[in-house]
Amino acid sequence: MTNNNIPNIVALAGGVGGAKLAYGLYKTVPADKLTLIINTGDDFEHLGLHISPDLDTVMYTLAELANPQTGWGVQDESWGLMQAMRRYGGPDWFDLGDQDLATHLLRTEWLRAGQSLNEVTAELCDRLSIGCTVLPMSNQPVRTLVDTSEGILPFQEYFVKRRSEPMVTGLTFAGAEQAEPLPSAVSTIQQADLIIVCPSNPLLSIDPILAVPTMRALLMEANCPKVGVSPIVGGAAIKGPAAKMMAELGLEVSPVGVARHLRDVLTGWVIDTIDADYTAELVSMGLTVQVTNTIMRTNEDKIRLTKEILDEYPAFER
Ligand code: FO1
């Protein structure tokens, strides 16, 4: 088979859960056939630095640099910056490791010099020898704001400072209406043979991507299989506040609830064996359903799940 017959795969991803399947894809698919489109709604300015947590989580994961305990940040990290920050009584609610800091410093410097977020991301990926294409969902700023029982909180203040404790009443993706996808994302989606929605938080990681108007339209129009992996397994989120937030927003906390939420950009849905009883309901929604072990603890798990998904969508002549 020539490389031209290998499908072009586009995957949408956000934080730690998304990065796991992104890793599986990266290790399974030829790098020039894989484009990852990453949520930037979590980005923020902190201590004068531009921080892009989801881009960094994916980048570190692909480069085998990620902290295995947290899933975000760099492994074997040192925390001299945070110690010095505490000595000054400076803001210490957001943990910036010393190695991680280099990423934020370079990104901020290059953005200030006039490069786009996409150019900066490509440069960082290149220097970490990441072969596939990693694209921010937009070069324009989109910021997730969380409406809560304590008022409107910028995303990282809700998620990290307030540990996702306040009750969520709504979400806003400020700037999304004016944001546009990268031209390369547009053409790659139009030529995609398979689109994968990684098991990221649907409300915090996938919705901001879909809030970019052209992006949602492109994904809806894409005439290829569009398969997502449920981030809700056995009534709970694998990691993070997805289940709590879904319940607070009145969504059913199940693979069906997530599939319903993302229905217009899906043709297929992968659920865990423990949730097999939802199959009939998902099929009645018009979805192709795959039931398998979706828990990804090890790198082998990530690759196994990826291969199982790709086996259902075999390479086909374009
Ligand atoms: N998450 C935390 O829970 N606490 C932190 O102090 C923290 C710091 C941090 C620094 C850099 C980075 O890239 C990510 C970091 N995260 C931290 C994770 C981040 O808040 C979330 O993973 C995402 O924004 C949600 O996907």
Describe this structure in words.
The strands form four sheets. The chain has a seven-stranded parallel β-sheet with strand order 5-2-1-9-10-13-14, with helices on both faces. The radius of gyration is 19 Å and the shape is globular. It is built from 13 helices and 14 strands. Helix 1 crosses helix 13 and helix 4 (98-112) crosses helix 5. It has 318 residues and is an alpha/beta fold. It has a single domain, classed as Rossmann fold (3-Layer(aba) Sandwich), CATH 3.40.50. The model has no long low-confidence stretch (mean pLDDT 96). 40% of the residues lie in helices and 19% in strands.
Could you outline the blueprint of secondary structure elements for this entry?
Blueprint: E1 9-13, H1 16-28, E2 34-38, E3 44-46, E4 49-51, H2 53-62, H3 80-88, H4 98-112, H5 117-127, E5 133-136, E6 143-148, E7 151-154, H6 155-161, E8 168-174, H7 183-190, E9 194-197, H8 202-211, H9 213-221, E10 226-229, E11 232-233, E12 236-237, H10 242-248, H11 255-262, E13 268-272, H12 279-284, E14 288-292, H13 299-312
Parallel strand pairs: 1-2, 1-9, 2-5, 9-10, 10-13, 13-14
Antiparallel strand pairs: 3-4, 6-7, 6-8, 11-12
Ligand FO1 binds at residues 14-16, 42, 53-54, 56-57, 72-73, 94-96, 100, 156, 159-160.
- From the structure provided, what is the oligomeric state, counting identical versus distinct chains? single chain
Overall 3D form: globular
| C-alpha termini separation | 13 Å
- Work out the helix count: 13
Work out the number of β strands.
14
